[in-house]
Amino acid sequence: MNARERYAAVMHYQPRDRCPIMDFGFWDETLPIWQEQGYPAGANPDLFFGMDPQWHTCGCIMGLWPPFPGLQLIDEGETEVVQQNDGVIVQRGKFLGSIPRHLRHTLVDRDSWDAYYKPRLRPDDPLRLPSGPAWEMQLAEWTRPERDFPLFIEGGSLYGVVRNWFGLERVSEIMYDDRPLFEEIVETLADVVIAVLEHVLGAGVRPEAASMWEDMAYSGGPLMSPKLFKQILVPHYKRITATLNKYGVDIVFLDCDGNIDLLAPLWLEAGVNTMFPIEVGKWKADPVEFRRRYGKDMRLMGGFDKHILMHGKDAIAREIDRLAPLVEEGGYIPMPDHRVPPDVRFEDYLFYLNEAKRVWGKGLDNIKPTGRPE
């Protein structure tokens, strides 16, 4: 069974040889710090760690086009002030930086939407819809009958990018002070996503899943009221998932950090049927509890508390064993609940990966060995 077949079998509760061994990835600083602990400099992490193919995604332009120019505005030594490609001015650290600090926003009201953002979100923009020799080469690769890796297609974002463009405080005001503007932005984003999906899927591409991103929750719950979420976002999620389903794409996973308890059932109602990365956090999200609550209709990816990777081998082994029955049931691909931070010791991550291969991967010899340099 190859990685493409294995992913599809797991997500549809069908017989399979083992669970995919996948990961979310690493902080930018993690691998350089691990070099001091034995990780070979220049090694390809997928090859070295011996995981299944990771995150092959159709390269589709569903965001702002053209993007704003990325510019360094002020060099502050350890930090810098930059204009991002989404038009937001932020201050960010150059090393071990966390979330950038928003300083100014180009999008603040309807006038700035009409002037700077709406023109960059034309669903029929020919530069957004791929064509030509490069597209034909991509299409040939994505539609190969013998393709052996799972392929994902982007499904867009209806809140996360809007929050970034406005900033959290302003987008929260806009939803109430100018709801028609917020609704227009959401509808425009959905129109862009559907136009690109129709173009790519209509050309014969059949990915194993679609991926969405929102990041619209924190430790206390959602950043948008469930009432407005259901009124404004759910109808457009349904438009997107209906387009995907029309072409046979029935696995739609959504990346949202934070406490998603109040939003998960609404996403499921809208056809978004896979939660990722199931961030554990202080609210103690748990994939086992999600399965008990929502049954097999909701698939799951993630849910291994990354902090456990810092607590030693015994704690790691216990959590791998605890999740094993859910892995065996199917509809679940375990992995750390976010990118692995540099606080995790290299040797403990290797232990986690080898133990996961033994338990979740059933120790089969079709798993690539850990520790193979590029």
Quick structural summary:
Helices cover 39% and strands 13% of the residues. The protein has 13 helices and 13 strands.
Essential attributes:
single chain; 374 residues; alpha/beta; seven-stranded parallel β-sheet; four-stranded antiparallel β-sheet; 13 helices; 13% strand; globular
Could you characterize what this model shows?
The protein starts with a helix and ends in a 15-residue tail after the last helix. The protein is built from 13 helices and 13 strands. The model has no long low-confidence stretch (mean pLDDT about 95). It has helices at about 5-10, 30-35, 45-50, 110-115, 130-140, 160-165, 170-175, 180-200, 225-245, 265-270, 285-295, 315-330, 345-360; strands at about 55, 70-75, 80-85, 90-95, 100-105, 150-155, 210-215, 215-220, 220, 250-255, 275, 300, 330-335. The protein is of the alpha/beta class and about 375 residues long. A 7-stranded parallel beta sheet has the order 1-6-7-10-11-12-13, sandwiched between helices. The chain has a 4-stranded antiparallel beta sheet with strand order 2-3-4-5, covered by helices on one side. A two-stranded antiparallel ribbon has the order 8-9. Helix 6 (about 160-165) crosses helix 7 (about 170-175), helix 8 (about 180-200) packs parallel to helix 9 and helix 12 (about 315-330) packs parallel to helix 13. It is globular and about 60 Å long.
